[in-house]
Amino acid sequence: MPENHKASLFDNNVKQIATNSVAAGAAVIPPYYLFVVKSALQAGLPRPSMTLDNTVIWPIKGAAIAGSVIGMQLSLTGVATRFLNKANITGVYADSISALSIAVLSVPALAADNGRTFGLTVVQSIKKLNIRQTNALVIRESTFLFGDPLGRLINDSMVRKFGDNNKTKYASTFLGGALVCFMGYPADTMLTRSQHGLDLVPLHQSFKGIGYKATAIGLFYCFYQGFKSAMSSTSQDRGRC
After folding, report:
1. How far is CA 147 from the centre of its chain?
2. CA distance linking residue 154 with residue 156, whole number of Å
3. How far apart are CA 35 and CA 117, in angstroms?
4. CA 15, CA 176: separation in Å to the nearest integer?
5. How far is residue 37's CA from residue 45's CA, in Å, rounded to a whole number?
6. Is the dihedral of CA 87, 90, 92, 94 positive or negative?
7. What would the mean pLDDT of 134-144 be, rounded to a whole number?
8. From CA 53, how far away is CA 23, in angstroms rounded?
9. Residue 46 pLDDT
């Protein structure tokens, strides 16, 4: 492969990671309060009132962690999937392997991210990290990373029925994010309760707060796609100048 082609591929990957990270960080902010509510309900606490901290300060601080980690996750998952496809590992198998691999690498940062939803510092969250939380995070993130490919599958189905337009695009994106939330939510509850120092609850009780998080994840994916599209359009416009 020519050196200039390698350099071009590297530059494109760096740009993709940067775009995804900024878009993910910005997308976390609007629905952040819903994450705060789900964490409180998982811990058996009442729904918290909206404050300056949990609607503005925590989201902005959390955006830096979430943006860098989620943006990197979504970028590397795509890279890993393409690599596996070259090795003739395709479809759901490739998606599963890449999602699991990236989830394992993301554990410490995502423990800190979840801890922020109820006031823990990064250092406090990482100090509390144990095997139970690690297992919960790997399960939760493996399902979360399915949101992007699942959204594309739902979009393909909806396009055939409703046509290719923005309403279809964002409806399928929201549904994909919300559906994967149900798959990983018991693990998310395990994580939150462990960070609070609480015992596990039976499976049927581990879905408390699911509506808030499903809505938050669905909105996150919609904002993420919207911000990423806007940034890509801006970059293309600059390239034409």
Report:
1. 8
2. 5
3. 6
4. 25
5. 9
6. positive
7. 84
8. 22
9. 96
| pTM for the full predicted model | 0.80
Other Cβ atoms closer than 10 A to 73:
25
Do residues 68 and 28 make contact, with C-beta atoms less than 8 angstroms apart?
Answer: no
Distance, CA of 13 to CA of 25 (rounded, Å) = 18
Residue 136 to residue 190: CA distance in whole angstroms = 6
Domains of the chain: 7-227 (1.50.40.10)
What token pair was written down for 108? 């410490």
Among 21-25, 41-45, 104-108, 221-225, which range has the highest average pLDDT? 41-45
**What value does the mean pLDDT take over residues 62-70?**
78
The Cα–Cα gap between 48 and 86 comes to 48
The radius of gyration computed from the CA coordinates of the chain, to the nearest angstrom, equals 18
State both tokens at 17: 């990671």
* Dist. CA 227–CA 18, nearest whole Å: 12
Identify which has the larger pLDDT, 194 or 20: 194
In one-letter notation, the amino acid at residue 241 is: C
The pLDDT confidence band at residue 95, using thresholds 50, 70 and 90, is low
- C-alpha 115/C-alpha 228 separation (Å) is 26
Supply the pLDDT for residue 141: 78
